[in-house]
Amino acid sequence: MKIAVCVKQVPEGTRRIDPETKRLDRSGEGALNPFDANAVEEALRLKDAGGAGEIVLVSMGPAKAQDALRKALAMGADRAVLVSDEGAAGADLVSTSAVLAKALERESAELILFGQQANDSDGAVLWAAVADRLRLPVVSQASEITHSDGKLTVKRQTEFGYDVIEAPTPAVIAVSDAINEPRYPSLKGIMGAKSKPQETVSLSDLGVDGAEPRTEVYALNDPPPRGESRKIDDDGNAAQAVLDFLLEKRLV
Amino acid sequence: MSTVVFLEHHGDELLKSSLGVLSKAATLGDEVAGVVVGSNVRGLAEGAGKFGAAKVYVADDGQLEAPLPQPRVDVLAQLVRDQGVDTVLFANSVLAADVAAGLAARLDAGLNWDLVDLVQRDGKLVGKRPALQDTVYVDVGWTSEPRLALFRSGSFDPNETGGSAQVEDLPVSLEDFSTTARMVDQAHEESTGPSIEDADVIVAGGRGLGGPENFTLVEELAKALGGAVGATRAVVDAGWYPYAAQVGQTGKTVSPKLYIAAGISGAIQHKVGMQASGVIIAINKDPNAPIFEFSDLGVVADVHEVVPKLTELVRARKTS
């Protein structure tokens, strides 16, 4: 089975928003979005179970996102396609989904996987938009995936419990981070990743005019005060301190 | 402005979080409509009038019974086009997020997500979105219509104002690809005991408890405080506690007056389910646990010592 995994480069360490552009500052070191590692791991697992296939990473971001893609290649993915274009900077959900859908169309994968969210923007919705553009079935919060005879059986976790959903391939599935424990790349994997194909494509390569956002940012503000936050160490009286706090707040 | 709120239901009840968004939308001035999508849901629609809906659209069809997103996108897209709806609001859930994003792509519409508030400013709608672990509040808007917004669950309380809604049936016409995913089993775990969504006090336990047997510490404290017991996904997955108690992104979203987190690190999965709580107290022996960043009182201590002591103190106070 050919599997496409959509991954994202996120800023490493402390994140900040550029007050000028009101966009996330992406100038520093980049890392692979940790939730995407679950999707890569699941692709590797399904490839092993099926005995054959190819795993292609599809991403959109600045040119240096290739570094983050190399980390996923080191885990075992076969090759990477990065859509990188000045015209795509500041893209929002709806424009990103249009670009990714075009990049995914070129691959004709039988399964398209996403991680459950991006840890920079906390976005947790992209897959459903991509699936709609590709006119493919979608299942999110997958905690188990099995594949046989062109049919995917997915266990979905919701607020109310578990559902079991069947969908024919090709399909789009967003995995929960409970689905697996992503492997650490081996030294061999890391060395091997350097020689795996990493393609960079522009919007015009994909036949996309631009990535016009439909949402905008007006202003950045301080959060409403949460009240004073206190932290205490246990000196043997911690329980009493908690009780005093509860009394002060009239909660007991 | 023509606003529609997606009213999600489970069993024979509309979700509180959806009704909260409806009540909020009704305060913004213009008439607000709700939309209920499912099978045998007409009765539910009528009840939404009490929470501020002037009209409730109903798509009632056997094909819409399973809580799957894509048939709902079809229904909503047609509603937006036929009625010239310019704003569609959703309360976040696994289902609603997928419906909202699918609809955004279908209509090429802007979607702002994780909003905690919505205001009118100079004739424009402005959403409030906490970002970077809630350290920044971002004012966001839309450059075109229709505007789609997904609110954090629990952002607004439903406000029962009376009134009744006019119910209008919608035609149901589904895309071929929308019905290819099929629900084959809905193994919902029904909760027993006091519902944690309605509890004023929740004491929740995580991996830091060390083992399932130590959940009695959490249960005892909850009992002493007259509250309910919550659990993280990690411990539910490990089989230490039933799913019904799970708080977080894929569990319950709660906003009690008091939330005590015992041995919980505060992963984002858990945080989104409890961050709207009134007062948050965290007990964890790791001083760097992320939970301390959004606690009102952080106690760096061993839960096995502090929790039973606290239970004793609370009990002693109640009997004195």
Distance between the termini of chain A: 59 Å
Task: Please summarize the sheet with the most strands of chain A.
Answer: 9 strands, mixed
**How far apart are the first and last residues' alpha carbons of chain B, in Å?**
58 Å
Radius of gyration of chain A: 21 Å
Q: How would you spell out the order of helices and strands of chain A?
A: EEEHEHEHEHEEEEHEEEH
State mean pLDDT of chain A (0 to 100 scale). Answer: 91
Q: Give the number of DSSP strands of chain A.
A: 13
Low-pLDDT runs of 5+ residues of chain A are none
CATH architecture of the largest domain in chain B, please?
3-Layer(aba) Sandwich
Structural class of chain A: alpha/beta
Strand order of the largest sheet of chain B: 7-11-6-1-4-5-12
CATH homologous superfamily placement of the largest domain in chain B:
HUPs
Question: Summed up, what is this model?
Answer:
The complex is a heterodimer of chains A (252) and B (320). Chain A is 27% helix and 30% strand. Chain A has 6 helices and 13 strands.
Notes on the protein architecture:
By secondary structure, chain A is an alpha/beta fold. Chain A has a single domain (2-201), classed as HUPs (Rossmann fold), CATH 3.40.50.620. Helices cover 27% and strands 30% of the residues of chain A. Chain A is built from six helices and 13 strands. In chain A, the strands form two sheets. A nine-stranded mixed beta sheet of chain A has the order 9-8-7-10-6-1-4-5-11, sandwiched between helices. In chain A, strand 7 (138-148) and strand 8 (151-158) form a beta hairpin. The longest helix of chain A is centred in the N-terminal third of the chain and has 17 residues, at 34-50. Chain A starts with a strand and ends with a helix. The model of chain A has no long low-confidence stretch (mean pLDDT 91). Chain B has two domains: 3-179, Rossmann fold; 201-319, TPP-binding domain (Rossmann fold, 3-Layer(aba) Sandwich). Helices cover 27% and strands 29% of the residues of chain B. In chain B, helix 2 (42-47) links the parallel strand 4 and strand 5 (55-60). In chain B, helix 3 (69-83) packs across helix 4 (94-107) and helix 5 runs parallel beside helix 8 (303-319). The longest helix of chain B is centred in the C-terminal third of the chain and has 17 residues, at 303-319. The mean pLDDT of chain B is 92. The chains are: A alpha/beta (252), B alpha/beta (320).
